[in-house]
Design brief:
The protein has 307 residues and is an all-alpha fold. 73% of the residues lie in helices and 1% in strands. A two-stranded antiparallel ribbon has the order 1-2. Strand 1 and strand 2 form a beta hairpin. The protein starts with a helix and ends with a helix.
């Protein structure tokens, strides 16, 4: 997978190669690509094309990271400057588009169109999730179900697609695909919930990326929704002021000062744990294997991660 990924993002243009070399430092854990390979092996469905699918999934993920940093105005990722910070927003958007083009170009070389169909639909759903999140900025009355639907579209969709392709590609095997898709979606939603918690209580030096971006951008996440629902009206008013006040600096520090976030964090972490445990139980129907155990261990990692 890594060799294919590096070959695909290579470019003769010096300007582009400088950026792809830089964004290569964002690859981090490569969980989504690993899910393709593990799901394929755990279901007895591994093929010679699975590493290419894993690379395609990782390129799509890299593209979403670059675009997300533009949307969030983020400055740091993986302890290095974001593309939009080192260059500018316009160039970062174009790099994200370049990565999408490379990903879907590689998918056309595969023997089956299944990966193109599944991943194009996943990309559409990611975009819809981002648009819906933007439309619901500052909505402190958002139901938890709406938060989870949007968070799922932003993050869980690609996890689910990775697992589905691992289990189904090049076609058929619908039951295995549905089982692993559900597993991936649950793990992905848990990942996003943990990410939202880290954005509130994490330290940039440990997390390795900018924190407090959700507040600066008016995004109301699960921990905040829970705290807001269970506090008094005076505190709610102070919370709204932190989010919406003109010229407010260091909004995250001010939010921490006006409300105790711990109950919301604990509630969100419990929800993430429940999602992971459900996912792990679901795949116990698969034959015992090291890959099945690795999938379960990946779920545990999602809960324990600090970056």
């Amino acid at each position: 997978m890594r060799t294919i990924l590096e070959a695909q993002i290579a470019e003769s243009s010096r300007a582009v190669s400088d950026m792809t070399d830089h964004v290569g430092r964002f690859r981090g854990k490569q969980l989504r690509g690993a899910l393709v390979l593990l799901a394929g092996d755990a279901t007895g469905n591994a093929t010679d094309e699975h590493p290419a699918i894993a690379a395609i999934v990782e390129m799509i993920h890299l593209a979403t990271l670059v675009h997300d940093d533009v949307l969030d105005g983020a400055k740091v990722r993986r302890r290095v400057a974001c593309v939009n910070e080192r260059w500018d927003n316009q160039t970062a958007v174009l790099l994200g588009d370049f990565l999408y083009a490379r990903a879907f170009g590689l998918s056309t070389d595969l023997s089956s169109r299944l990966a193109s169909r599944v991943l194009s639909d996943a990309t559409r759903r990611i975009c819809v999730g981002e648009i819906e999140q933007a439309a619901l900025r500052y909505d402190f009355e958002m139901p938890q179900e709406t938060y989870e639907r949007i968070a799922g579209a932003k993050t869980a969709v690609l996890y689910g697609a990775a697992c589905e392709l691992g289990a189904r590609y090049p076609g058929g095997r619908d039951e295995a695909g549905a089982l692993l898709s559900q597993f991936g979606n649950s793990i992905g939603l848990a990942f996003q919930i943990i990410d939202d918690c880290l954005d509130l209580v994490g330290e940039e030096e440990v997390v390795g990326k900018s924190v407090g971006n959700d507040i600066e951008d008016g995004k109301i996440t699960l921990p905040v929704l829970h705290v807001y629902e269970h506090t008094d009206e005076a505190t709610r008013a102070r919370m709204r002021d932190v989010y919406t006040g003109v010229g407010v600096e260091k909004r995250l520090s001010k939010l921490r000062a006006v409300v105790e976030l711990r109950p919301g964090i604990e509630f969100a972490l419990a929800r993430a744990q429940a999602l992971v445990r459900e996912a792990q139980a679901r795949i116990q129907t698969l034959p015992p294997s090291t890959s099945r155990e690795a999938l379960c261990a990946l779920g545990d990692y999602v809960l324990e991660r600090s970056w």
